[in-house]
Amino acid sequence: MAVVGAGVVGLCCAWLLQRKGHRVLLIDPSLAAPGLTQKHALAGGSQRSGSGAALGVLMAQVFHRSRGRAWNLRQQSLALWHSWLQELAERGQPVSRRQGLLWLAAEPEEWQRQQALVAERQQLGLALELWDRERLSTLQPALPAGAIGALHSPLDGQIDPPAAMAALLADGRDSGLTTAGQRVGAIERDGPGRWRLLLEGGEVVAGLAHVVLTAGLASPALLQSLGSSLAMEPVLGQALALRRSAPGPWTWPGVAVWRGLNLVPRPDLGAEATFWLGATLEAGSRADPDQQARLRHWGDAGLDWLEQASVVEAWQGCRARPVGRPAPLHEQLQPGLWLVSGHYRNGVLLAPASAAWVLEQIEQTTPRP
Ligand SMILES: Cc1cc2nc3c(=O)[nH]c(=O)nc-3n(C[C@H](O)[C@H](O)[C@H](O)COP(=O)(O)OP(=O)(O)OC[C@H]3O[C@@H](n4cnc5c(N)ncnc54)[C@H](O)[C@@H]3O)c2cc1C
Hints:
single chain, globular, alpha/beta, FAD/NAD(P)-binding domain, binds flavin-adenine dinucleotide
């Protein structure tokens, strides 16, 4: 079988299928990148694939609904990340992560929503709690003075997407995963019950019982010749890496969210004072400088240490939003042709649940030898 696209979703699918005993070929031009380490090849430059641009924030338990497909996928995925990261670490592929998320309330209505959510989640036995202004004021560096209170979610948090992707790839290869650093030009039928892929380099990969399409925004174009009218639109996100002018203690319980923007402390990046800010939400694929300016100041957080920090890197990428359908898209388009795409704002979080879905479907339709 083949997985087309090695973003975080394709890597999770390929890794899981290979680990469960299937023979998988993962195809993506980004896997070719000569002279680069795999980690850099997967992350890219300032204009990145969705996965290369992602901050890796995992917001499962703070989701606004407590049931339905989106809630279930989030809970399943969060649990899978916990066990997969442990498994990867045990096999020599540790991935840096931060546990915990602090969602700051900027308005009284937001604080009320948080109070209702905590009451509801506590009834489900989830360990969410409210932190008042006094408790927030003990944290360093200072949080926005305008924060009324916060919701603390100890099990949400953040993983490093390039590191997670590099670990999945390396561990997958150790388990026999094969890869091709090429672009797929077309997906075609190859006789009854089989598929073939035409690679842009001229090669043909034939006789595939299953093709899993995880090419993000490029997925619709690959399906056009098969009569699919799948539509997805780009939603651009900008992100920044900054460094504090003077390193100091960082006592926050993980990621902080203020006015919809995430601040991720990244002491693991080598410089103790480094942190990430992101991401903007911009319809289309052109970056708006005003949105970057708002991001730079963390939505007018009014913090001296933030204003004095210097920007060390800026990048952007596009999310794939399905048109007229809820994200993500999990679908068997034709027998043996699986679409796992359109993860929009939560592809890093949801990738393990997507991989689990495709594994289950393939195992249900394929008799084991
Ligand atoms: C700035 C930003 C911040 C984000 N932050 C978060 C976050 O904190 N948490 C979170 O959960 N999500 C976040 N997201 C969303 C997340 O990044 C995406 O949902 C996710 O990366 C989608 O992954 P994917 O594998 O489906 O697609 P992609 O990452 O776009 O990967 C698709 C892959 O397919 C390959 N490809 C394309 N065409 C072909 C072809 N013809 N043949 C072979 N390969 C092909 C591409 O090279 C690419 O590697 C963020 C997104 C952005 C832009």
